[in-house]
Amino acid sequence: MTPDDRPASPAERLYDLLAENDDMSGFLHDLARLSAVEVGVPGATECGVLLKRDRRNVVVGWSSPHAKTLDETQAGFDEGPCLDAQRTETLIRVPDVRYETRWPAYMEAVCQTGLRSILAVPLTLQGAGAAAMNFYTPEPSGFGDADVERARDHAALASRALSVAVRIAREAEEAADRRRAMESRTVIDVAVGVIMAQNRCSHEEAFTILQKASNNRNVKLRDLAAELVASVGQSEPRTAFDA
């Protein structure tokens, strides 16, 4: 067998996901689908991934509609094995949801789907947020010790890949924030120039006029500036900004 013919390793499959996705949502969906294959019984295991980043909403990835519904429900209840695995960084196994007394509202929702066993596995993001994977199967006691060990090994690799994805997403968001800030500053500067010309005043006086108008009209400074620039027949200026 040549190197090109050999099956991809678990790490290679995860890094392929990074190469194939340019947004966090797509990466999480693919991660959930891959994880459902890597852990538990193939074809009988479903997976959801919950990611909570600082100052960001919870993002959910799923391998199936069941997993999507259950992880969104869990996020809505703000309780459940996956969230506890996130918060405590502890693997949680639920052999049979029908007899689980923790998280009663969420367990009732899982029961209604026909799924019986849950395995919640934390992912380590080294301060970049909190994440965990939920594995579901319709079989009671569906996750044995071998599945738990396989899940731990997979989670260690998945944590690395997800950490890279979070860092890439953060850098892209920061670049977009810088671009928006620069564009806002540019249109404000142009609007201030218009006011200076119309009122024969200084830059400081023109900015004060614009700021007061923004407060009085309860309109964002940048939006009011764009409105003023447009009112004198100019298109909104664009800033060449290297992200």
Describe this structure in words.
The chain is of the alpha+beta class. Helix content is 56%, strand content 12%. The protein contains eight helices and five strands; from the N terminus they run H-H-E-E-H-H-E-H-E-E-H-H-H. It has a five-stranded antiparallel sheet with strand order 2-1-5-4-3, with helices on both faces. The longest helix is centred in the last third of the chain and has 55 residues, at 145-199.
* Shape assignment: elongated
Query: Low-confidence runs (pLDDT<50, min 5 residues)?
Result: 235-243
What radius of gyration results from the CA coordinates? Answer: 25 Å
Enumerate the strands of the largest sheet in spatial order, edge to edge or round the barrel. 2-1-5-4-3
Query: How would you name the oligomeric state of the polypeptide chains in this document?
Result: single chain
| Average pLDDT rating | 82
State which percent range the strand residues make up.
5-15%
- How many beta-strand runs? 5
Largest sheet: 5 strands, antiparallel
How are helices and strands ordered from N to C? HHEEHHEHEEHHH
DSSP helical segment count: 8
Helix content: 55-70%
Separation, N- and C-terminal Cα atoms: 44 Å
Q: Helices and strands: which structural class? A: alpha+beta
